[in-house]
Each structure stands twice: as structure tokens, then as C-alpha cells.
Amino acid sequence: MEERIQSGQGFRRTLKLYHLTLFGLAYLTPMIVYGIYGVISTTTHGVEAGAYLTAVVAMLFTALSYCHMVKAFPVAGSAYTYTRKAINPNFGFMIGWAILLDYIFIPMAIWLIGASFFNAAIPSIPPWVWVLFFIIVTTIINIIGVKIGANVNVTMVVIQLMVILAFVIFTVKAVMNGAGEGTLLSMSPFYNPDVSFNFVVAGAAIACYSFLGFDAVSTFVEEAVDPLKTIPRAIMLTTIIGGVIFIAVTYFTHLSHPSYEYADAGNAAFEIAKEVAPAVFGTIFLLGMIIAQFASGISAQASGARLMYAMGRDGVLPKKIFGVLNSRFNTPVTSVVITGVIALLALKLSVTTSTSFINFGAFSAFTFVNVSVIAHYFIKERRRSAGEAILFFLLPLLGALADLYLLVHLDKAALILGGSWAAIGLVYLVYLTKGFKVAPPDMAIDE
User: Fold this and answer.
1) In angstroms, how far is CA 430 from the centroid of its own chain?
2) Is 5 left (phi over 0), alpha (psi -120 to 50) or beta?
3) Contact criterion met (CB below 8 Å) for 90 and 436
4) What average pLDDT does the segment 191-201 reach?
5) Which residues contact 214 (CB under 8 A, 6 or more apart)?
């Protein structure tokens, strides 16, 4: 946060609605839909657009709750901040612990996806080699301190949207020429009577990985022009625009390739690109995905390491281990290395399990954002008129239930690992609070 432009009295309010919406889309990384397309396709048995539609509905409820909480606490915030202030510091700590899970394991998922695309480019080299390559290179870069800006990378968003548009055009052209289903109007991407809805929900639980970061818009509340209006609108626009892109991509991609069987589900989109587009576009698409994943991995690892450093500095994690900067590079070397070591789990996990594991933390946080709305507005402020009961009780309740429903449909391994992580956090919370006798230390989540 300290890196942002500041004036003598605080942040300058210069960000307008379109700035904030572009920021939100940059965090979403629109091309990620192609990175996990094959995983969602195989999980849903070919009902990819239906999974994304289900995910969008759940995310809209949660996005609306973020809008409410931004108005209640108009400071740079997060699910952790909202839960801590609206419900209880101990619950807030557990949500912060869940967010830490996301920060640590997002690089692992990014590197797994990137490795699958590298393997598609050079099949003779196994994916695990590329995973190690990603981990070693990005760890060295983050130790040295080279930074890749991701917050305002409008150019990258535009490039991604151009590649997505080109891919959609090629799929439409292929369908019109008789490929796939041979028709541009079909319900099969959304619904198949022979496919259980449980498969669709399991796919939606994975698809929500594409929406991670829409809530990051809330961290710009102190720099936005008229934040009580622009921030909520930007959050909703980011969710809606991202959702429309994801649904459109999966719809047309399915029409051109209805089968959910691939040589490698991890790079299914590349296989389809080779089927529907000229060879040169396949190369451009592959390079774009690899570069995007590499850049995202560096940023994600840096963010995770920086968060662990901030928590170590503030006493949430052991200060002597995590709260120290290297004197030569002025970077949290220990935290960077730890994120790299943890990422070695990618050698034993699939993209499905790793994204589900991340979503365990995300769904936990999203659930409590919805509950925070009820706690703050409906219970504490007694906003209980007919309209307010819908806004501050019914809708956030539906959002919380939707998030919990998706959470329990995550990969079983992810549920076990996520539950274990939560149990460790609870034990650690008991230790920090001396048996809940003192308040837990404040986490520097926004760092």
C-alpha cells in the first residue's frame, strides 16, 4: 500500500470508475478461463458454460455484499477487515488465516497451469521439470527484488481481450463451417440431461478460481473519486464483465469442440486452438498464456511473501523468521523461499486439486463477507425494514449459502487439506490469544 501515490495528507483521489473497473479486470486476468478450461470441461462432463453461469450467480451475491461492506468501512479493506470489525476479532483472524492460504498456494496453481502449456510446446520435457523451472526462476527474481507491476497493467488486459476475441471469432467460424455442433444456438454448453447437476456444481466450484481478485477493487477505496459510489459499481462491473467473458468463451469453445476428452486437460484450450485457428494463432495463444502465467507467478509469489513478512513484522507469525528483510536485497528472503518450497507440492498435485485448495480459502472468506453484512447492518444497526431485510439479510444469506454449497463440492483432497489448515489456524489462535483471553494481533492483510 505504501507504494501508491500519496500526498502529504493521504492518498490522492484520482481513480474514476473506468480506472477501477480496469484494475479489477487486470486482477481477474481474463485469459485464465483458457488456463482451466480443460479441467472444468472434464469435471462437468462438457457443461462448461453452465458451471460458469452457476459461479457468476454465486459471485454476484458476494460482490453485492462487498459493496455493502465498502460503504460500512470505507478504508482499504478485505474480507479479514470486514469480519474483524463486523463480527469478532477471532473470526477475523481465522479469515485472515484462510486468506494466507490463498496467497501461499496461488503461485502453485499458476505454475502448474504454466507448466502444462510449456509441456504442450515442448512435449519431450515432462511437466515437473517446468514446475521446478518456474519455482527456481521466480524465487530468484523475487529474492533479488525485480518487481513486475500488475495493479495497473491496462495494456495486458487489452492484449488478453484481443486474444480472447480472436479465439472466439475462430471458434464461431469453425462452427459455421460445420465443426463441433454445427450451430451457434445450443443449450448443451449450459445443460445436459445426461449429466448430474453435481458435476456442474463441482465445475462451478473450480470456475470461481477465475474470479479471485474481483474484491481487490475494494483496496483502492482511499484513492477513488467518490468511493461510496464508484467502488461498489466497479466491483459489480468487474464481476459482471468478467462473468460475461467467461461464459461467452466457454459457450463458443464448447460449440466448436463438444467433447470433454483431451490429450491433456491442462492445456485443452491449446488443443482446441490448433483445431479451429491457423497455426500462427496457436503459437501466439501459447506464448501469450505462458507469458501471462509467468508474470502472474512472479507477482503472486511476491505478494504471498510480502504478506508473510508483514504478518511476521506485526507478531502474527514468528518475527525472527518472517519479519526480517535481507540486508543486501531488502526483500523478505525467508518468506520468498518458503513460498517456493511449499510450491513443490505442485509436483504431487493436479490443477484441479490446487485450484480447489485455493478456493477453500476464498469460499471461506466470501462466506464471512456475506455474514458480515448481516452482522453489521441487520443485527448491529437494526436495518430491518422490508427492503433492508432483503438487502441486508436475505441476499447475503443466499450468498453465504451459495459459497458454502460450492465449498463442500470442492475436490475431496482440497477439503481435507483446507480443513487441516483451518484446524492448525485454530490451534495457533488459541496460542496467540492465551486461550481467547486476549485479542489476536492485527494482521497487515492490506500490505
Assistant:
1) 29
2) beta
3) yes
4) 95
5) 24, 27, 28, 59, 63, 235, 238, 239, 242
Q: Rounded mean pLDDT of 120-127?
A: 86
199 Cβ contact partners less than 8 Å away, ≥ 6 residues apart: 43, 44, 45, 47
- Which CATH homologous superfamily contains domain 17-121+151-277+354-432? Amino acid/polyamine transporter I (1.20.1740.10)
**Three-state DSSP class for 326?**
coil
d(C-alpha 392, C-alpha 375), whole Å:
9
Mapped onto helix, strand or coil, the DSSP state of residue 193 is: coil
Average pLDDT over residues 408-433: 92
Q: pTM score, two decimals? A: 0.84
Angle made by CA atoms 219, 221, 224, in degrees to the nearest 5: 125
Residue 438 CB burial class (10 angstroms; 0-12, 13-18, ≥19): exposed
Lowest mean pLDDT among 73-87, 114-128, 151-165, 170-184: 151-165
Q: For helices 268-276 and 37-44, what crossing angle results, to 10°?
A: 100
Across all residues in the chain, what is the average pLDDT?
86
Alpha-carbon distance of 37 to 269, in angstroms, equals 6
Within 8 A by CB and 6+ apart from 130, the residues are 114, 115, 118, 119
Q: How many CA atoms lie within 13 A of 19 on its CB side?
A: 16
Distance CA 350, CA 111 (A): 11
Q: Residue 25 corresponds to which cell in the numbers above?
A: 479486470
**DSSP class of 212:** T
Could you give the CA distance from residue 389 to residue 381 in angstroms, rounded to a whole number? Answer: 12
Q: Tell me the HSE value of 292 on the side-chain side, using a 13 A CA sphere.
A: 27
Q: Which residues contact 108 (CB under 8 A, 6 or more apart)?
A: 342, 343, 345, 346, 349, 354
**CA triplet 92, 93, 97: central angle to 5 degrees?**
120
- 122: cell is 515442448
Bridge partners of 15? 224
DSSP-derived secondary structure letter, 391: I
Over range 371-385, report the average pLDDT.
Answer: 96
pLDDT score for 146: 54
For residues 293 and 118, is the Cβ–Cβ distance under 8 A?
no
User: What span, in angstroms and rounded, lies between the C-alpha atoms of 366 and 361?
Assistant: 9
Distance CA 361, CA 102 (A): 6
| All structural domains of the chain with their residue ranges | 17-121+151-277+354-432
Containing 6, the helix (H) or strand (E) segment is strand 6-7
Q: Is the pLDDT of residue 150 over 70?
A: no
DSSP summary character for residue 239: H
How does DSSP classify residue 125?
A: S
